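RECORD TYPE: inverse folding
INPUT: structure tokens
STRUCTURE:
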């Protein structure tokens, strides 16, 4: 990633410290809000820490609901950040305790969403730093490749991984990204609990949405 300036950090912090409101939860394509502002979306395996990261980025405790139960996010949840950006919390994948039919419905909804949002600038694929890329992550990356949506990897829970192992995980992930057409070669290391990597991710989002 390019060097972050103090001015960019200040602007990003101001943006994410502003208003951020829940807009709606989408269970069907016809419910999607008007595509009238830049969007970024977050996706990852169930219980990877999506909601916790969104809360940490926006300085809230319960903007996005958190749960220890995999599969809690069961629809596309839209948040309006300062009237400038839509942040979209997508359903988790992997070990969600839901029916096969529900998983198929989510998959269809996400594919249609990804293909039909011209203002979607990037999908952040969250990966637990303790485990690295799993088969379900690779399946999601292939789907994103097929829809030609730019995506970036965000390692979560980095505070729970040893430094030397974190370096290995990052290197292995970088090698995998080279094989995926829509993947961007930028990996952000974060901890919602430890509050690190958040400034960098905020600036990435600001740059992507041209705020």
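DESIGNED SEQUENCE:
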């Amino acid at each position: 990633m390019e060097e972050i300036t103090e001015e960019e950090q200040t602007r990003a912090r101001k943006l994410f410290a502003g208003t951020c409101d829940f807009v709606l939860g989408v269970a069907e394509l016809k419910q999607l809000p008007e595509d009238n502002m830049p969007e970024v979306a977050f996706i990852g395996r169930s219980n990877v820490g999506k909601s916790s990261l969104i809360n940490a980025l926006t300085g809230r405790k319960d903007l996005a609901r958190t749960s220890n139960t995999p599969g809690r996010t069961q629809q596309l949840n839209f948040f309006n950040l300062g009237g400038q950006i839509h942040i979209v919390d997508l359903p988790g994948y992997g070990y969600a305790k839901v029916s096969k039919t529900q998983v198929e419905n989510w998959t269809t909804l996400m594919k249609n969403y990804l293909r039909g949002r011209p203002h979607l600038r990037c999908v952040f694929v969250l990966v637990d730093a303790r485990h690295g890329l799993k088969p379900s992550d690779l399946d999601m990356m292939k789907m994103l490749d097929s829809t030609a949506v730019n995506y970036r990897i965000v390692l979560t829970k980095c505070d729970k991984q040893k430094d030397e192992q974190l370096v290995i995980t990052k290197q292995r992930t970088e090698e995998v990204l080279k094989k995926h057409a829509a993947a961007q070669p930028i990996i952000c290391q974060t901890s919602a609990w430890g509050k690190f990597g958040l400034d960098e991710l905020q600036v990435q989002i600001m740059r992507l949405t041209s705020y």
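NOTES: The chain has one domain: 6-208.
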